[in-house]
Amino acid sequence: MNDDIQDKEIFVEAIRNFKPPKDKIPLTFRLMRLKGLQPWANTNSVSIGDVIQGNVFVAVLSDYMVDLDWLISECPTLKKNPHVLVVHGESDARQEHMKRNKPSNWILHKPPLPIAWGTHHSKAMFLVYPQGVRIIVHTTNLIYVDWNNKSQGLWMQDFPWKHDGSDKGSGFKSDLIDYLSALKWPEFSV
Asked: Which of 72, 82, 120, 131 has an alpha carbon within 20 to 30 A of 165's alpha carbon?
C-alpha cells in the first residue's frame, strides 16, 4: 500500500514539474486557463483576454451560447469596437435578452437552419486587425463557466494580409468561405 502512495506522489510530482520548452509547444493549440488551479497546471494556457486583444478592427464571434455581459467585462475593448457580429444559436427568449443588452453597434445573427430541429453550434472567432486576421476555433461557449471552470481548448492562428496580388487558394480558404456563406449573414458592412 505504501508503494501505491509513493508511486502516486512521484506521478503527481512529475506532472507538477513537467515544463516543455516553449519552442516545442505549438503556438496554435492552447488550453483555456482554469480558475483555482495551481500556476503549474495552467502552464501555457490562455484566457479569453489573451485571445481577443489589441487593435481589433472587426470581430465575428460565432458560438451557441453567448453571455454578452461576461464577454464585455472580459474584453472591454470589444464594446467600443464599431464592427462586431455575434452569430449564435440561443433560444428566442435569450435572444430577446441579448438584443436589449447588447451595445447598439453590435449585430446579432441566428443563422437559419436547413432542418426543423437543432441549432447553430459552431464555435469560432474571426478577428480582423490592420495587419491580418486571427482565426480561432474553440470548444467553449462564450460564457464564464466554460472559459474558467471546464477543461477546454482552442486552435488559434494569425494570418497576414496577402500583398503579392496572388490569389492562390487553399482547401482551408475555400472551406472557410463556404462556411461563412452558409451562415447567411445579415447586412454587415465594414
From this structure: 82
Write down the residue that cell numbers 460564457 correspond to. 143
Q: Which residues pair with 46 in a beta bridge?
A: 32
| Spatial contact of 121 and 138, defined as CB atoms under 8 Å apart | no
C-alpha cell at 78: 470589444
Average pLDDT, consecutive stretches of 10 residues, N- to C-terminus, the chain (190 residues): 66 61 65 89 89 91 91 91 88 86 88 72 91 93 92 90 70 82 69
Torsion sign over Cα 170, 119, 69, 107: positive
Number of H helices, E strands in the chain: 7, 7
Judge whether 143 and 70 are in contact, CB under 8 Å.
yes
Nearest to 35 by CA among 64, 86, 69, 74: 74
